[in-house]
Amino acid sequence: MADLVVRVGSRSAQGVRPNNEDAYIVSPDSRLFLVADGMGGQDRGEVASHMAIDIIPRALNDHLAANEPADYAVDKALHEANAAICEAGKGQPEGRRMGTTAVMALHVNGTVYVANFGDSRAYLIRGEDVRQLTVDHSVAQALVNCGALSPEEARYSPYQHVLHKFLGCITLSDKADVRPFTPMPGDRLLLASDGLTNHVEDEDLRQGPRGYPDPSVWAHHLVDLALARGSRDNVTCVVVAFEPA
Ligand code: CA
Asked: Is 125 helix (H, G, I), strand (E, B) or coil?
C-alpha cells in the first residue's frame, strides 16, 4: 500500500440564493469529508444540513472508537443523523419537513469509504478516468435504473431533483450504499452538491489533476465555473488530493 499525503480544498458559495443551505466539513485529521445540501421552508434546510455535519462526525467517531467496522460505522452515523433530523422536524407540517442530502468519505487504514443519501455526489478522478462513485437518490435516477428513462432524459426530467432517500426521511430504512476504494497517488476525490454537479461535465473534472494540482485552487475554480455557467443554487465542493508521500 502506497504511503499517501492527503491535501484538501473546499469552498461553498451562496450564489444568488437568499441563504446557503449547503454545508460541509473536513475533519481536522483529514479523515472525514462531508457535503450536505439542505431543503425545507424558511431556514429549515440550513438547520438540517448543519445537523448532518454536526452529528455525523461525532456518531462516526463513537462507532469507530468502539472498533466497529468502517462501513458499519458509516451506515450507523448516517442513520443516527437521519433519526435526529426526523425528530427535529416533527413540529413542522407534513409534506414540508426539513431534510438534507449527505455525501461523505471516510479515509481509514488505507481505504476510503464513500456513502450518500440524496443527490449530492462523489467522483473519483484517476488519470483520464472520471468515475461517479455515488448513485443519485432522485426519482429520475430511479427511472433510469429501471430502464424507463435514458441518462440524458433524466438530466432534464422534472423529477431530477425529487429525492426518495435523504436525511430527514421518516421511511429511510435502507442501509447506506457504502462503496470502498483504495486511493492511489494522483487521485482526486470530489464531493459536491447539485449546484455544482449540474453545471460541470466529466471533461471539466478530467482536467483537474493536471490543470489545478492544488486542491484548494481547483475547488475555487469548480465553484466559479458552476456560477459562471449560470448555477442559481448554492454551490459547494470538497476536493481531496492523494499525493505520493
Ligand atoms: Ca442544491
From this structure: strand
pLDDT in tens, the chain (245 residues): 568 999 999 999 999 999 999 999 999 898 999 999 999 877 799 999 999 999 999 999 999 999 999 999 999 999 999 999 999 988 887 777 899 999 999 999 999 999 999 999 999 999 999 999 999 999 999 999 999 999 999 988 999 889 999 999 888 888 999 999 999 999 999 999 999 999 999 999 999 999 999 999 999 999 999 999 999 999 999 999 999 98
- The Å distance, Cα 94 to ligand 1 centre, comes to 21
CA of 195 to the centre of ligand 1 (A): 5
Domain at 206, CATH number: 3.60.40.10
- CA 23 to ligand 1 centroid distance, Å: 11
CA distance 85 to 162: 19
Cell 502506497, located at residue: 2
Q: How far is the CA of 232 from the centre of ligand 1 (A)?
A: 9
Compute the distance from residue 66 Cα to the ligand 1 centre, in Å: 34
Domain that holds residue 238: 4-244
- Phi, psi of 50, deg, nearest 5: -75, -35
Instruction: Say which amino acid occupies 116.
Output: N
* Spatial distance between the Cα atoms of 190 and 154, rounded to a whole number of angstroms: 22
- Residue 48: count other Cβ atoms within 10 Å of its Cβ: 30
118 contacts 165 by C-beta, under 8 angstroms: yes
